[in-house]
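INTERNAL AUDIT FORM
Audit reference: QA-55
Scope: verify that the stored structure record matches its stored sequence.
Auditor: D.O.
Record contents follow.
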Amino acid sequence: MILCTIASAETYRHISPLLGRAIDWLREHSADEFVKGVTEIPGTGILVKAEEPALLPREKVALEAHRRFIDIHVPIKGEEIIGWAPVDSLKHPREEYDEEKDIAFFGDASHSLLHVRPGQIAIFFPEDAHAPNIGLGNHRKLCVKIPVV
């Protein structure tokens, strides 16, 4: 898991060529008008989901994990609190991994809470379970889905 600013994310581009492409896209498009929906970064398989989810109390948000994607969470309007725990420490799966949706949910508590503010990003790798959208009210965010290659 990485928490940093969009500007300092350049440091991490070497981790994956597609992570570098996603960071470039975020730097180039961070000031774009917010429009809900899904966009694909051409030729990459990277999906950018623009969402306006309701924030929920911590106890109502389950940890989730992915195997085929790296997630970047990017708050646009309002702070987002995201729970985190290493997948290999989790003991209480809520259901089996759904290969089609690339997601597994867990009933374990988060080990840490991240406060991610506009201008910052949180990057979660397949070994990072995360519980997004914790807080009160609504917010706007991007969730960038990067294929693991």
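Auditor finding: record pair retrieved intact. The chain has a mean pLDDT of 96.
Action required: none
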